[in-house]
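Severity: low
Component: inverse-folding endpoint
Summary: output formatting inconsistent between runs
Steps to reproduce: submit the following structure tokens with default settings.
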């Protein structure tokens, strides 16, 4: 995994998304938009008045970044009905935009249409993966994508597809490097011991894949082997510490196991 390339992608995409969010907000301070969009415009401006422009734009940009990362991972691994950031074989436009243009007149701003299609796909994915794709809200108005350049193109072109293929850990590294500014700031301020409230910013934001496997194999895996000592699962757990079994359990079904991760973020 090319960590330098992942870091460069995260930093460049963050800069682009935050800049575009501020530009969108400036435009929304103009005339009221018609219909339901005007209502969301009012909600957004009220939110900004309470929380501040920088906070709202920064939070919205982070949300878009994670949605872009999730969609890129899903499209490369065949989890979407059509590609959102990249074209189908033999085409130049993102597949989702190509599909839309095949049934609509090409008379509108393509980037505006592309942004709407991206939002629509995120709304669809919210119904399927609500923990990763948040419910659409007024901050959707701060998203402006281009299929030719900017954050969407960075996710499409900065890394080879093999970097995304079955590499779920890349999502964690992207999130880690996206917050590199906060991490460096926390470390630089204290130049030593970090205050409790800044520990999350100064340390790892996610648990790497091998640590997750180690923990699961030596907890859940051990419990299973205590009830099924001859299970072939033992040969499929490279991080399992195969110490002599000191406990035995009655055979069980996977459905009977209940897990508690009391340290989950």
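Observed output (run 2 of 3):
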């Amino acid at each position: 995994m090319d960590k330098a390339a992942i870091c460069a992608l995260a930093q460049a995409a963050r800069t682009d998304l935050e800049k575009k969010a501020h530009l969108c907000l400036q435009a929304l301070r103009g005339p009221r938009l018609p219909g339901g969009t005007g209502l969301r415009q009012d909600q957004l401006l009220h939110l900004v008045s309470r929380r501040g422009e920088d906070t709202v734009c920064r939070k919205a940009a982070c949300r878009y970044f994670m949605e872009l990362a999730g969609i890129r991972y899903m499209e490369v691994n065949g989890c979407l009905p059509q590609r959102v950031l990249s074209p189908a074989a033999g085409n130049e436009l993102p597949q989702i935009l190509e599909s839309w243009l095949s049934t609509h007149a090409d008379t509108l701003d393509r980037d505006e249409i592309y942004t709407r299609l991206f939002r629509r796909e995120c709304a669809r994915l919210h119904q399927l993966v609500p923990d990763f794709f948040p419910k659409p809200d007024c901050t959707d108005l701060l998203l402006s994508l281009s299929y030719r350049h900017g954050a969407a193109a960075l996710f499409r072109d900065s890394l080879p597809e093999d970097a995304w293929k079955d590499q779920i850990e890349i999502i964690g590294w992207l999130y880690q490097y996206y917050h590199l500014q906060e991490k460096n700031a926390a470390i630089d301020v204290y130049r030593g011991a970090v205050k409790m409230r800044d520990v999350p910013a100064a340390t790892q934001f996610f648990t790497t894949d091998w640590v997750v496997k180690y923990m699961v194999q030596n907890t859940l895996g051990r419990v299973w082997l205590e009830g099924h000592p001859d299970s072939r699962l033992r040969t499929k757990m490279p991080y399992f510490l195969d110490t002599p079994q000191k406990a035995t359990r009655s055979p069980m079904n996977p459905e009977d196991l209940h897990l508690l991760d009391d340290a989950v973020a």
